[in-house]
Amino acid sequence: MNRARIPTSGALALVLFSAACASEPGLDSRIAEGRALLDAHRPAEAQAVFEELAGEDDLRTRMWLLRSWIDQGRSNDALDAIDALAKEHDGVEIDYLYGMAFARRAQGHLAAGADDTAILMNFQDAAKHLSRAVAADPERFYDAFLPLARARWESFELEAAEEAALRAVQEDPDDGAARLMVGRVYFALFEQARGEASSREQWSPRALELWQRAVAAYGQAIERAADPAADPVDRALLVSASTQLAQALVWGEDGSGAADAFGEALGWSRGPCDYLGTYGWLEALPAEPQAADETPFARALRRVVQLRKADGRDPSDDPGLSWWLGYVHLEEERYESSEAHFLAALAQAPDFTNAWYYVAVARKRQDRPDEAIEALKTGWSQSPTAMLEELRRDPQRTLPEIEALTGHAAERERPLDAAVLSEMSAEVLIDEPRYWNNLGLFLRDASDQLAEEADPSPELLAELHERALAAYVRCLELSPRDPQVLNDTAVILHYYLGRELERARAMYARARDLAQEALGQGELNAEEKERYGAALEDALANLRALDEGGPRPDEG
Question: Does 12 score more than 50 pLDDT?
Fold first, then answer.
C-alpha cells in the first residue's frame, strides 16, 4: 500500500494531516501523527508528540517514544529502556523495538567507520527481532521492512533481503531509500551470478537480468531525491544512489554513464569526496568514441564543476577537486590551467605537498625550467616524505622529469639546486649508486662555489662537506669496486675535511689498483676506458699530493 507521508518541511501539511485524522485527535490519530513525523525523518518533533501522550496506554506510547529516540541515534539509551520495558511486557512490540534499535546501532557504527564483528552481530540480532515483528503484524510495523532488508543484506541472506526490500517498496513506492535497498540487493545477487566472469560478454543471462534490475532500482531511487539542494535526506539519497549506480555501470562497461553518475554523486556531496576512489573506478574504462579526448574521469570532474556552480558553490573551494582538475588537465596537455588548479589546491590546503611536483611538471612543459626547479625545492622543503611518496609512485615517469631539471641546473652552474634534485632522485631509487654519486659531486661543487665568495660561511661549508661525504659513502656501499667513487670519497676526506688521511690513502691506493686491473683486462668499452683512465690518473696524483702535503692537483 502507499502510505501517506508528511513532507519534510511545511507546517501547513502537518495541520492538514492532523485535521484529516480527526477534528479532536484521539490517541490513535496522535500516534499516527507522530509516526508520520518519523516517516518524514523528523524524530525530534515526533518525540514531542509522544511525550505529550505519556501515561495514555502506557505500552503503545512508551514504545513510540523509544522509537523516536532510536531515530535520533540514541540506540544505547533506547536499548536500556527497552530492557526495562521487556520486564513488564512480552510481545511483538518488544521485538520491533529491539530490532529497530539493533539495526540503527549497527548503521551508526558503520557510519563512524568501525569495522568489527559486533556490527554483523547487531544486524543479525536486528534481522531476528524484525522478522518476528513483521510476521506478527506487517501492517502495524510497515516501517520495519526496510531495516530488515538492510540487516538481511548485511548478513548475506540475499533472498530474504530481496523479499523484505520489495515489501518495503510496496509499503511506500515513493521511498527512495527502499528503492536503493532493492538495487543493493539485486547488485549483490548479480555479483554472485557473475562469478568469475570479467567482462559483460561473459555474463550469464541471469547475471545480466540482475544487473539490469539493480541499475533500474538505483535510477528509481535517484528520481525520488526530489530536492537535493535543500533537503539533506534527498541529498544523501542522491549521493548514495548515484555512487552505487556509477559502480554498477562500470561493471557494465558504460564509461559515459558511470562518469555522469559519479559526477552527480561528487557534485552534490557536501562532505569529503573520494576522488582517488572514483579515479580508481574509472581509469580502466576507455573514452567514448565521440569524446576520444576526454577520459571518463575527466567527464566526471566536468560534471562536478557544473553542479557546484549551479548550486551556487565555488569549485575552487574544494582543494581535492582543484588537485584532480590539475591532474586531468596535465594529462590533457593543458599545462597553464593545470598549474593554476594545483596552485589553487595548495592555496586551500598547503599540506597537499605533492602538488608541487605537478606544478613543476606543468611549468617545465611551458618551458619555464627555473620556476619548475623552485616548485620542486618548495615541496621538498615542506615535506620530503610527501614528495617521495609521489615520486616513488612511478619512478619511470617521475625520475626523467627530475633528471632533466637536474641537468638544467648543472648547465646553469647552480650546483646547490642540482644537489637538491639529485637528493630527490637518490631517495627515490636508494639502491642506484649513480644518484648518490651525483649528489656528492654537486655538493662538492656547491662548496667550491661558496668558497669563492668574499666571506663564505664556515658552518655552511662544513655542512656541505659532511653531506658530500655521506653521499659518496652511500655510493661506495653500493659500488665498492668503482675506482672513481673510491677516489672521490677520499678527496672529501683529504682536501675538504682534512681528517682520516690514512683512510683516504687506502682508498686512493684501492682506486689505483682497481683501475689498473680493469684497464689491463681489456674488457672495457670506450666510455669505461676513459672513466677508468681518469680515475687512475686522479688516484695517482692524489696519492702524490697526500705524500707531499701539496694542494689538490686540479688547483695546481
Answer: no
Compute the average pLDDT of residues 169-191: 97
Average pLDDT, the chain: 92
> Cα separations (Å) of 83 from 57, 63, 68, 87, 293?
19, 12, 16, 7, 62
pTM of the entire structure? Answer: 0.84
Contact present, 78 and 63 (Cβ < 8 Å): no
What element of type H or E holds 104? Answer: helix 92-111
The residue whose grid cell reads 619512478 is: 395
The whole-angstrom separation of Cα 262 and Cα 270 is: 14
Separation CA 415–CA 446 (nearest Å): 5
Q: Which three cell numbers stand for residue 450?
A: 661558496
Q: Which three cell numbers stand for residue 203?
A: 555474463
The 10s digit of each residue's pLDDT in 274-317 is 999 999 999 988 776 655 568 999 999 999 999 999 999 999 99
* Residue listed under C-alpha cell 502506557: 58
| Structural domain containing residue 512 | 480-556
The grid coordinates listed for 45 are 518533533
Q: How many CB atoms lie within 10 A of CB 487?
A: 29
How far is it, in rounded angstroms, from Cα 28 to Cα 175?
Answer: 24
Distance CA(322)–CA(345), nearest Å, equals 5
Find where cell 673510491 sits: 486
> Is residue 497 situated within a structural domain?
yes
Rounded-to-integer distance, Cα 356 and Cα 405, Å = 14
The one-letter code for the residue type at 246 is A
The total domain count for the chain is: 1
CA distance 360 to 364: 6
DSSP state of 414: -
In a domain, 524, yes or no: yes
Has residue 554 been placed in a domain?
A: yes
- What is the pLDDT, as a whole number, of residue 555? 63
Q: Which three cell numbers stand for residue 419?
A: 644537489
Distance separating alpha carbons of residues 308 and 320, to the nearest angstrom: 13
C-alpha cell at 556: 695546481
**Is the residue at 539 inside a domain?**
yes
C-alpha torsion 13→14→17→19, nearest 10? -110
Give the pLDDT of residue 57.
66
Q: pLDDT tens for residues 211-249?
A: 999 999 999 999 999 999 999 999 999 999 999 999 999
List % helix, strand, coil for the chain (3-state, nearest 5).
Answer: 75, 0, 25
